[in-house]
Automatic annotation (TrEMBL), chains A, B:
<dbReference type="GO" id="GO:0003824">
    <property type="term" value="F:catalytic activity"/>
</dbReference>
<keyword id="KW-0274">FAD</keyword>
<dbReference type="GO" id="GO:0071949">
    <property type="term" value="F:FAD binding"/>
</dbReference>
<feature type="domain" description="FAD-binding PCMH-type">
    <location>
        <begin position="37"/>
        <end position="218"/>
    </location>
</feature>
<dbReference type="InterPro" id="IPR036318">
    <property type="entry name" value="FAD-bd_PCMH-like_sf"/>
</dbReference>
<protein>
    <submittedName>
        <fullName>FAD/FMN-containing dehydrogenase</fullName>
    </submittedName>
</protein>
<dbReference type="InterPro" id="IPR016164">
    <property type="entry name" value="FAD-linked_Oxase-like_C"/>
</dbReference>
<dbReference type="Pfam" id="PF02913">
    <property type="entry name" value="FAD-oxidase_C"/>
</dbReference>
<keyword id="KW-0285">Flavoprotein</keyword>
<comment type="similarity">
    <text>Belongs to the FAD-binding oxidoreductase/transferase type 4 family.</text>
</comment>
<dbReference type="InterPro" id="IPR051264">
    <property type="entry name" value="FAD-oxidored/transferase_4"/>
</dbReference>
<dbReference type="InterPro" id="IPR016166">
    <property type="entry name" value="FAD-bd_PCMH"/>
</dbReference>
<dbReference type="GO" id="GO:0022904">
    <property type="term" value="P:respiratory electron transport chain"/>
</dbReference>
<dbReference type="InterPro" id="IPR016167">
    <property type="entry name" value="FAD-bd_PCMH_sub1"/>
</dbReference>
<dbReference type="InterPro" id="IPR004113">
    <property type="entry name" value="FAD-bd_oxidored_4_C"/>
</dbReference>
<dbReference type="Pfam" id="PF01565">
    <property type="entry name" value="FAD_binding_4"/>
</dbReference>
<dbReference type="InterPro" id="IPR016171">
    <property type="entry name" value="Vanillyl_alc_oxidase_C-sub2"/>
</dbReference>
Length: 472, 472
């Protein structure tokens, strides 16, 4: 059983930690972007070094006080707030934001957990390298949270998920020991891979304090195009065609539905829309090529062959970096537009690549049996990852459909499960999908997860209630 | 405490398993390539399905009988034999060798654990795809063992280690439950990544029975070159130059020392050597390019720029696939030539890329303080992974140096450790490096590994004594 933070506990920590570790708990630390959960108060601590994190964790373990690790606060599944249970320590990594080292010749960068993703990208860029992880919240998300949730984003197709971009971690384990695993090695087969266990564990098995990150060369030439496709099947065939012609040069391949453009027009008129009249479906293709290649010509060649094959009906090829940025601004503004409309239910799902058309074809009619909705389906189709979000009709609000939310979610997730997919592709489980994991998760996997959690965190102090239900 | 296999235990299993599961235990199952360990007898079982594996594991868990999972028997650290302790079950996956499915449009192949690596490569090839994992023992190694040891090989530079090529696994856990994790997804953030935990666990946390493997497009054009370089630093600079010019098209980048060619001439005269007089150091560069590119021209351009920069003094560019195969035959024959000479001590190490020259510069003089040896240093320099093997002088045998083996190993491994490297880059820990892991491993990592092992395998039946010392 956990106990709440007390005055005595806080006083004891004040005697052991520098003054700088104590910050005022402002409301921002208790909110999350989708407004589903409201964190309770507690003790906010901002350690400045791994050893200070360890000191805090040891104190919490001894007193059985829960710890909520806090990165940039951008997570979408409520993993950064603790709404129930005894008041916890909220442990923000914001003071640990140093880029400890950059090794351009090795394509490695060492960042502390509190470094903001955009800062890591900038530090890599200043060294003539690319840190390829890129997502809508990169201006706020911190690298520790990005790793703890194994974030995805738009460049997974070419460069992999967050876990694929991490060579080693430093972390504080639930017993307060420091895992010194910041190796800059491409190969290291010395025992169980704790890095991959902590990545994606959402702070429930320890606190990542720093990471050795993998960099890539900056592509000499970049380009982008929007191409109108008849539907998801044509999008997949276009992807295969693009990869066949351009190989690893295809950095991103994003599907968008017209609904997203309509939402942008309605809620974010400042975003300039590329199409006069948006097609029902389109893809945003991004290329990163070598010095000898011309992205616009490459995309023109792709479009010509795709048009010949009947896969595309219209296309816009960026003629400048500004135009490419404008295409991306459209894509990256979709989540905020969605938030302004107010989804009844949002789904971050993945299915095997070839099952995408079937998923989209079946999900709409299945939902229509529950009620009438607007659906914005978009996402990283090259990774089999869709954001399938369900909205009220114009004039209605999400509150009008509150009673249907459970049925909508079950409808979408049951279909995903039937197609061999995942009910959380890139956002994680957090608090939001604990039930889903119990419902759809493999029983042997769940049992093993519980055994690992109990072994490494017997008091259950690390991010209680996230991923696994906290013991009653 | 474990108990030995008994007649009664075997009789009980005979009543529960099909006759085909019982095979004669021939001496081959008790040997390993380097002859360091001799396995004891036991009960050989060859299950034909995951459920039969589960039945065996449950019986062993109930009776506390140890299990040694057996793939192709090609491991180099003794993980496939149990020399001491109560007689175990030797569990060979050789009957589970089906390619269950190939999904070329998704770049996925599902293989059972007993499928031989070369068979997986061939099945991918028949579907117009590449399974890029490639290593000297690919004609015997089985995919389950390849994953259990997180094998590396020559294409890691471009395509990653075994773990990077695995999307999902089916496995039997130490309690006999079946982990159904054969998802064909690029993104799946639903809880702890047990796939990455079992990959590299060398059979100590369960038995992998099948895997969803990631395929790649077959490069349209391939090419290879041997280039003489002045030394390791020049090799690294040549690598940077090659990647800058050719990007992901560089599939492999292997360093070889003249000593290896001398060993080939001495022990394998049937291997045709490419150089009339081998340079002290050379690299084998392998390219996989798109349809529009010419590998030989690309390599000529690279050579010209490298020569201009003073990095290369001589070069051989393959003019045909046959010549490329001949270059690779030289590289792939090195391990067997080494075995025929007979190493006193072999080291599979990695260091940060930029530390390779320092490692090589310091290791030789450090060893010279112990005695006079021949050193064959070769390997995957693009991954920071060297095979640094120490041999007796001509006319001596390894037996003459038996007393120096411990000092040699400590000398090499201490230097690796000082440079932030790994004492097992791609071969794993097995039985051979249990001591090294205790000596060089991070204490927090070791404690967490022991906690995980105890939680998932409380009776300690899975590959006892591998990676972690078996409890006394």
């Amino acid at each position: 059983m956990l106990t709440p933070v007390t005055e005595a506990f806080a006083a004891d920590l004040r005697a052991r930690l520098p003054e700088a570790c104590f910050r005022e708990l402002t409301p921002a630390y208790l909110e999350e972007p989708r407004g589903r959960y409201r964190g309770q108060g507690g003790l906010l601590l901002a350690p400045g070094a791994a050893e200070e994190v360890a000191e805090i964790v040891r104190a919490c373990a001894a007193a059985r006080v829960g710890i909520v690790p806090y990165g940039g606060g951008t997570g979408l599944v409520g993993g950064q707030v603790m709404a129930e249970g005894p008041a916890p320590v909220i442990l923000t990594l914001e003071r640990m934001r140093a880029i400890r080292a950059v090794h351009p010749a090795e394509n490695v960068l060492i960042a502390e957990a509190g470094a903001i993703l955009a800062e890591v990208q900038a530090a890599a860029g200043a060294a003539g390298r690319l840190f390829p992880l890129s997502l809508a919240s990169e201006g706020s998300a911190r690298i520790g949270g990005v790793l703890a949730t194994n974030a995805g984003g738009v460049n997974v197709l070419r460069y992999g998920n967050a876990r694929d971009l991490c060579l080693g971690i430093e972390a504080v384990l639930p017993d307060g020991s420091v895992l010194h695993g910041l190796k800059r090695l491409r190969k290291d087969n010395t025992g169980y891979d704790l890095r991959h266990l902590l990545i994606g564990a959402e702070g429930t098995l320890g606190v990542i304090t720093a990471a050795a990150l993998r960099l890539a060369p900056i592509p000499a030439r970049t380009g982008a195009a929007l191409m109108a496709v008849e539907g998801p099947q044509a999008a997949l065939e276009l992807l295969a065609l693009a990869q066949g012609r351009i190989g690893e040069g295809v950095s991103a391949f994003e599907l968008m539905h017209r609904q997203g453009f309509d939402f942008l027009a309605e809620t974010m008129p400042e975003v300039r829309l590329p199409w006069a009249r948006a097609p029902e479906w389109c893809v945003l293709i991004d290329l990163g090529l070598g010095a000898g290649q011309d992205p616009a010509l490459t995309l023109e060649g792709l479009f010509a062959e795709a048009a010949e094959a009947g896969l595309v009906s219209d296309g816009l090829i960026a003629q400048s970096e500004g135009q490419r940025a404008a295409f991306w601004s459209v894509r990256e503004s979709l989540p905020l537009a969605n938030r302004r409309i107010g989804a009844i239910s949002s789904h971050d799902i993945s299915v095997p690549l070839s099952a995408i058309p079937e998923f989209i074809a079946r999900a709409g009619p299945a939902l229509a049996r529950i009620g009438q909705f607007r659906i914005n389906c978009f996402g990283h189709v090259g990774d089999g990852n869709l954001h399938y979000n369900v909205f009220p009709l114009p004039g209605e609000t999400r509150a009008d459909h509150e009673g249907r939310r459970v049925a909508i979610k079950a409808c979408v997730h049951d279909l995903v499960d039937a197609l061999g997919g995942s009910v959380s592709a890139e956002h994680g489980v957090g608090r939001l999908k604990v039930d889903d994991l119990e419902r759809y998760g493999d029983p042997a996997k769940l049992a093993a997860m519980r055994a690992i959690k109990a072994a490494l965190d017997p008091a259950g102090i690390m991010n209680p209630g996230v991923i696994l239900r906290a013991p009653a």
